[in-house]
Design a protein that fits this description.
disordered C terminus; two-stranded antiparallel sheet; 358 residues; Arc Repressor Mutant, subunit A; alpha/beta; disordered N terminus; 15 helices; 9 strands; Helicase, Ruva Protein, domain 3; 5-stranded parallel beta sheet; Rossmann fold; 3 domains
Length: 358
């Protein structure tokens, strides 16, 4: 039995972007078909795979449940997939839910009390769980016991409920938001890194084989270079390039076909999409590279402040195209080069003083 809570993939970025890291309904269905079934099939994350393999092998040799596992990292890097692999390697069923779905301690108590011995509980976005549920989880993880409160006020009674040994796999995109008492109860913590282009090429070739798509090595390299280091995005781009190859070519994905398809979908050679380029274009053309305040920049591109800050900026900063400073956002020399513009010899005085607004 594998009940699936759609909220488990609630790391949405608020927009429907081809290069967005969030998973929609179509992504979830395709990911289920493309997911590797064991650690040997899992591509990338070499250190995490090796460490996790030792943890699981040792647990199997002892005939015990595996230690609780915490996986952190950006959306789309394989946290859900690894949780399913953990269950498969341990020969145990898996229960999937998410932090936002657990708003009361009773919600968590209902899930914990129905677990079977050795079962894996995958809790996505664990940092978004309510505080009362979080505190209940402390005792459940450490002592395999929860106290269920019956009644209210002075007459309330705590009834201890023993739980069978289980393995909790927590996933978070913001490990820093986890309180230390919760973080310290995990026996193994793995941080998921962004993928190198060569690793993404392996992901794309594997997915292409499962999707029965013919792809050249250079075609796979072209898609990998625009996938922002994220397998979920690589698989999504592969499906869109497959559609283009089917309609406008002979069905085979070459470098030219991949480049033509991604040009149609406005994903450039570096993985930037329309929103990313709009932010850079406004920063360079309207404000001479900054510094400029976030609110002003958001108005200039016609987006909400949160959309610019949480959707576009992280990748631009990671790519070295934009910098956050106390005075505002500033474009780097690489941003001017990427858009084919020539930086001014000297920024205007008002830009130097950061007077474009907070």
């Amino acid at each position: 039995m594998n009940p699936y809570d759609p909220a488990a993939d609630d790391d949405t970025d608020g927009t429907d972007r081809l290069v967005g890291p969030a998973a929609d309904g179509e992504d979830q269905a395709v990911e289920a078909a493309l997911r590797p079934k064991d650690l040997g099939e899992f591509v990338g994350q070499e250190k995490v795979r090796q460490q996790l393999d030792l943890v699981l092998r040792a647990a199997r040799q002892r005939g015990a449940t595996a230690d609780h596992v915490l996986l952190s990292g950006a959306p789309g890097l394989g946290k859900t997939t690894l949780s399913m692999i953990i269950a498969a390697e341990m020969g145990a069923p898996i229960r999937i839910t998410s932090g936002p779905a657990i708003q009361h301690a009773g919600d968590l108590a209902a899930i914990l009390s129905s677990l079977q011995e050795g079962e894996v509980l995958f809790l996505d976005e664990i940092h978004r769980m309510s505080r009362p549920a979080e505190e209940m989880l402390y005792m459940a993880m450490e002592d395999f016991r929860v106290d269920v409160i019956v009644g209210k006020g002075p007459g309330a009674t705590a009834i201890p409920l023993e739980l069978p040994p289980f393995t909790l796999v927590g996933a978070t995109t913001r490990a820093g938001l986890l309180p230390p008492p919760l973080r310290d109860r995990f026996g193994f913590t793995g941080h998921m890194e962004f993928y190198a282009p060569a690793e993404l090429e392996r992901v794309i070739h594997r997915s292409a084989g499962l999707l029965d798509v013919v792809i050249d090595p250079v075609g796979a390299a072209e898609i990998a270079g625009r996938s922002r280091g994220t397998p979920r995005i690589a698989n999504r781009l592969l499906r869109r390039v497959r559609d283009y190859a089917q309609v406008r070519a002979d069905g085979r994905i070459t470098r030219e076909v991949a480049a033509g398809a991604l040009e149609v979908y406005e994903v450039d050679a570096r993985g930037l999409d329309r929103l990313d380029r709009a932010v850079l274009d406004a920063l360079l053309r309207l404000f001479n590279g900054g510094p400029v305040g976030l609110s002003t920049l958001a108005v200039a591109v016609g987006e909400e402040r949160e959309t610019v800050e949480e959707v576009a900026e992280p990748f631009l900063v990671r790519e070295g195209l934009l910098a956050r400073t106390p005075r505002g956002r500033v474009a780097t020399p690489a941003a001017w080069t990427h858009l084919g513009l020539t930086p001014p010899a000297a920024a205007p005085a008002r830009a130097q003083q950061g007077l474009f607004g907070p």
